[in-house]
Amino acid sequence: MKITSKGQVTIPQAVREQAGLHPNSEVEFEVRPNGEVVLRRMRPKASPVRAAFQAARGSATAAQFKGMGTDEFMRFLRG
Fold first, then answer.
1. What is d(CA 53, CA 13) in angstroms, rounded to the nearest whole number?
2. 31-53 residue pLDDT tens
3. Fold designation for 1-44
4. Element (H, E) at 50
5. 4-11: long-range contacts at Cβ-Cβ below 8 A with a sequence spacing of 24 or more?
6. 44-50: long-range contacts at Cβ-Cβ below 8 A with a sequence spacing of 24 or more?
7. What is the pTM of this model?
């Protein structure tokens, strides 16, 4: 496998599949002291709205939500 003049390399399909890499996947590189380079798939970060929903999921009976109306809850989710 060769690196192109632009510094690009094609990741073989079998490696992409095993690593769970798909188009537009984000990856990071680690260069180890012995010169090895490790390619690692990055987990997508949750958007602030998704994070708020995850924080609220399963906790609708929590004290902070008791008596909260729909508009108040939407403000909470939107931050």
1. 35
2. 999 999 999 998 877 677 777 77
3. Pemi-like Protein 1; Chain: D (2.10.260)
4. helix 48-56
5. 11/39
6. 48/79, 49/77, 49/78
7. 0.49
